[in-house]
Amino acid sequence: MADRVHPMPAPPSPRPDQPPPAGAGAEAHAANDGAPPTETTPLQQPHPSFNRPLSPPPGTYIVQVPKDQVLRVPPPDRARRYKKLAARPARRRLLRRACCCACAAFLLLILLAAAFAGAAYLIFRPRAPAFSVASLSIRGLNNLTSSSSTTLSPELDAAVRADNGRNRKVGIEYRGGGSVTVSYAGERLATGPWPAFRQPPRNVTAFAVAMTGQGVRLTEEQRRRLAAERAAGDVPLAVEARVPVRLRFGKTVMRTWTVDVKARCDVAVDRLDGNATAVNRGCRVKVRPLWWWW
After folding, report:
1. Is the pLDDT of residue 13 over 60?
2. What are the TM regions of this chain, as residue ranges (predicted)?
């Protein structure tokens, strides 16, 4: 701690209207007797407030605090709040850094997954399977002369052909839960389950699907048109399938998630009773995007 030293104030000059103190005239007269008279100019004293600081009132103390302690040591009653406020920027920096690291890790995982999927596609070249309907056995669609209020209960057995010949290194696993539906002019006639089996690469598998329908009601227009097409030997039917599948790559354990494959085949049959010959007029297959995993 340092003490401040104040300079002593200069004695005040006498005012013009104030007589000089006693003894001052005699001393001045004695000095002037031995020296010639000279002209003197009174020295203009500046205002005392410009050359010296104001003296503190009596009974006060001036304490100086070192500069390295100014605004750095909080009072005891504010120490806890000061510590809490001082720790906020550090927590915010840590939180911001953690968020940036998490975003960078997420982007890195996306890039790695995309690179892996692209490499797997270029190596194995997966292709969607092809489907066709070889034949149809139809029962319960002969009674077309009755009124439209009569319901039909058709039964159909379809011979379906699944072709995986375009995939040389990719096998297909048809899982349970799939269905096959036959409809005419937008009206569903019968539906049945798709069997679950595994198909290796470069393989063609034929299987039968049994479908049944109950409470099928056709309008008068649909009945007349169906009867005319049966007489002409060209009845158009739509065979739709929805099958959950997995793709297995070669002999490894790498395969895809279970995805839905939707297929629609437009066929024409020559009769509505017994074993009918099915003429395929085209099949369309739709597969959802695949997500790869080990």
Report:
1. no
2. 98-124
Backbone angles phi, psi at 113, to 5 degrees: -65, -40
Rounded Cα distance between 253 and 256, Å, is 10
Closest CA to 216 of 185, 245, 238, 239: 185
Q: Which pair of structure tokens corresponds to residue 7?
A: 């300079």
Q: What dihedral do alpha carbons 269, 270, 274, 275 form, nearest 10°?
A: -60
* Tokens found for residue 292: 């790869």
Give how far Cα 38 sits from Cα of 26, 30, 34, 35, 42, Å. 18, 15, 12, 9, 13
235-249 vs 179-184, strand pairing mode: antiparallel
* Confidence category of residue 15, pLDDT binned at 50, 70, 90: low
Using the predicted structure, report yes or no on whether residue 291 has a pLDDT greater than 50.
no
Which residue is it, tokens 């598998």? 205
d(C-alpha 26, C-alpha 29), whole Å: 5
Q: Which pLDDT score, from 0 to 100, does residue 18 have?
A: 52
Cα 244 to Cα 85: distance, rounded to the nearest angstrom: 58
